[in-house]
């Protein structure tokens, strides 16, 4: 599974870590998406209780099958690309792919990883969010009403609740519907906001992890303890997700948009419209959920990744 500078085991370990993190983090991811792109929730607790009362525990796992199948591949690419990019940088800068990376090397590798990740991650996120948002109220401004009253005036509706109504039967139907109506570009709606989120976001993910691992590992030890990996990964995840929240709000809104009719023309239009309607605080909606959710997801991700690598490289 290895060559001198390229290793496949990083991809396999990333796949294992990704699967573990999805199961741990999806319930809070659903809450985060509803808070950012939905309506009618007073706060995080109210959102959680509303989902549970209306949809039971299964509501928190809505749309999980697609992330479980796809985010495992996504994390495989992210961790495999990041690790191999580090080795490539070390090879050309220091003449040895095993040479430890400096802070600048880590920054370049992590930002390149964030850029590459959007190609695979944007469609994954879009489908996940569309499936998570299916039980939301359909706002009247997003409805194209075929029937008007006799005198031609619009039906005066504020919002319409369509219980048990689903636009998509599942992830495959969601993908095919988007492709039929909007083409391949429809799957990449919100990709610009995702670049703004992930390029700096991955730098604030991998660098804090490396720093915390170094701080938590005694100088006498050659490798970090699993508890150190778990804590460093969790802290890195919380930091990354909290700082990425404003761009994540914009991304979520753009990807949840256009269920029936587009409301936002682009990233800048979404930012301006959201600010005018709800003020600056809207860009920090879901930040607390991101901080809480980021810890178990990332701690699980890094721990399973590192333990898998240790297993592969010792056998």
TrEMBL record:
Which GO terms fall under molecular function for this chain's record? transmembrane transporter activity
Q: Which chain regions cross the lipid bilayer?
A: 64-82, 103-124
List the Gene3D superfamilies.
Mitochondrial carrier domain
Where does the protein end up? Mitochondrion inner membrane
* Record flagged with keyword Flavoprotein: no
| Chief localisation class | mitochondrion
Q: Which UniProt keywords apply?
A: Membrane, Mitochondrion, Mitochondrion inner membrane, Repeat, Transmembrane, Transmembrane helix, Transport
Signal peptide positions (record): none
Q: Where are the Solcar repeats?
A: 5-88, 101-215, 224-311
Topology relative to the lipid bilayer, per the entry, is: Multi-pass membrane protein
The protein's superkingdom reads Eukaryota
Any one of the GO CC terms: mitochondrial inner membrane
State the family it belongs to. Belongs to the mitochondrial carrier (TC 2.A.29) family.
Q: What is this protein called?
A: Solute carrier family 25 member 48
What species does this protein belong to? Poecilia mexicana
The opening ranks of the lineage are:
Eukaryota, Metazoa, Chordata, Craniata, Vertebrata
